[in-house]
Write a structure and sequence with these properties.
Blueprint lengths: L6 H28 L5 H28 L29 H20 L8 H14 L1 H9 L3 H5 L7 H19 L15 H20 L7 H29 L4 H15 L8 H21 L11 H19 L2 H4 L10 H32 L6 H6 L1 H6 L8 H9 L16
Helix pairs in contact: 1-2, 1-3, 1-8, 2-3, 2-4, 2-5, 3-4, 3-7, 4-14, 5-7, 7-12, 7-14, 8-9, 8-10, 9-10, 9-11, 10-11, 10-12, 11-12, 12-14
Length: 431
């Protein structure tokens, strides 16, 4: 091992990287259960595509734009195509540079996959691939640079332990822009568009929570106090969100829903993401409980609008990330994080820095995503015909179905022309 490498930290970070990578297929399962069965495979394939597209983009240029020195807005190109990324540690770290690169790649991957939740069931697959490639270069690396790559928010002192800025708010507000540009599904507002498999959703949520221990716990980049604190807080916050969500469901409808429970797990994990290594366990529990309220009511409110943001990425990620960043500005404690106190402990500057983060990030993510999709639409249609949407994205874009007797196959059979009752004479062609 090169000098400065800690084998214990390296072993943990190898495991954490694998855990975070697992989160993307887990998200695919979570998303696939939330859509109608005729779109199951396509929804999962968008998440799988994110692994391939974002990894290549990250290796080519994204990592350099995020973590090379550059300027306050964006990094440079010294690490393009992984130049200088080797076994030696980065300054101040105890793990190989290669491992840090891989760990950060998994963050970019899942963020691209998250945005797909806004446009499933109607966006064409090839335009989505183009969007994933461009978004993972133009949006995520810029926000990552701002938050923890040496950019202007980090320089000001804004706190973001594991990606509340680039991952959670970045995906949530990009999802809103994507939903507006791609427009609503043809049946939106006319009929109930219900999840087809709640068990998929629950299993996906459970696997996501499992992976989140690597996502947040690994963001300490070792086995020190910050990683341990984030690991424990990742257990506590989602559990508290889940309890409050149960109560809200019972008050509203006298039933605790499985889809609601799965969503609560995600909301709690998202809210603690920026704050995991900076809040005491007590405040982490309070954050988990508090985050349930804005996200729960945002999900109830969204169907009353004209925006068909299919899987509520804005509410579950954008609003929850927004909540976690601001909560951190109030209740951070230096005795727990070794960095800074928040407003409640006499440091108003920290709240101002967090406020700047929740203003600048949505503006950039929404604006660039909106323009990017409009430009792609000038080259190729973002969505297919109403008939293709009725058949389902699985059959249209992949020629396969998740279930042998799926909706798409039944629709195709119903639209097939009846057999000609009069047999025609065979015509011999050729010699």
């Amino acid at each position: 091992m090169p000098a400065g490498i800690d084998t214990g930290d390296t072993a943990w970070m190898l495991a954490a990287t694998a855990l975070v990578l697992l989160m993307t297929p887990a998200l695919g399962l979570f998303y696939a259960g939330l859509v109608r069965e005729k779109n199951t495979l396509n929804t999962f394939m968008m998440c799988l595509a994110a692994i391939a597209i974002a990894t290549v983009s990250w290796a080519a240029i994204g990592y350099s734009l995020a973590f090379d020195e550059g300027n306050g807005f964006i990094g440079g190109l010294d690490h393009a195509f992984m130049q200088g990324v080797d076994f030696a540690p980065r300054e101040g770290q105890t793990i190989p540079h290669l491992l840090f690169f891989a760990f950060q790649a998994t963050f970019c991957i899942i963020t691209v996959a998250l945005v797909s939740g806004a446009v499933v069931e109607r966006m064409r697959f090839v335009p989505f691939l183009a969007f994933a490639a461009l978004w993972s270069i133009l949006v995520y690396p810029v926000l990552a640079h701002w938050a923890f790559g040496g950019g202007w928010l980090m320089a000001r002192g804004a706190l973001d332990f594991a990606g509340g800025i680039p991952v959670e708010m970045g995906s949530g507000f990009s999802a809103l822009a994507a939903a507006i540009v791609v427009r609503a599904r043809k049946d939106h507002g006319r009929q109930a568009l219900l999840p087809h498999n709640a068990v998929y959703v629950l299993v996906g949520a459970g696997l996501l929570w499992f992976g989140w221990f690597g996502f947040n716990g690994g963001s300490g980049l070792g086995t020190g106090n910050a990683g341990v604190l984030a690991f424990v807080n990742t257990l506590l916050a989602p559990a508290c969100t889940l309890v409050v969500w149960f109560a809200l469901d019972l008050v509203r409808g006298r039933q605790v829903t499985a889809i609601g429970a799965a969503t609560a797990i995600i909301v709690g994990a998202v809210a603690i993401t920026p704050a995991g290594g900076y809040l005491s366990p007590g405040w982490a529990m309070a954050l988990g409980a508090f985050a349930a309220f804005p996200c729960y009511f945002a999900i109830l409110w969204r169907p009353r609008t004209r925006v068909d943001e299919t899987l509520d990425v804005l509410a579950a990620h954008g609003v929850a990330g927004f909540t976690g960043i601001l909560f951190l500005g109030v209740f951070a404690q230096e005795k727990w994080n070794g960095v800074s106190d928040g407003l409640a402990y006499g440091n108003a500057d920290q709240f101002v820095d967090q406020l700047l983060a929740v203003l600048a990030t949505p503006a950039y993510a929404f604006g660039v995503t909106y323009v990017l999709l409009r430009l792609i639409a000038l080259v190729t249609p973002l969505r297919g015909s109403e008939r293709e949407e009725a058949q389902g994205m699985d059959i249209v874009h992949h020629g396969e179905e998740a279930y042998a007797s799926g909706e798409g196959a039944l629709l195709i059979k119903s639209e097939a022309k009846p057999a000609d009752p009069k047999p025609r004479e065979r015509v011999k062609v050729g010699a």
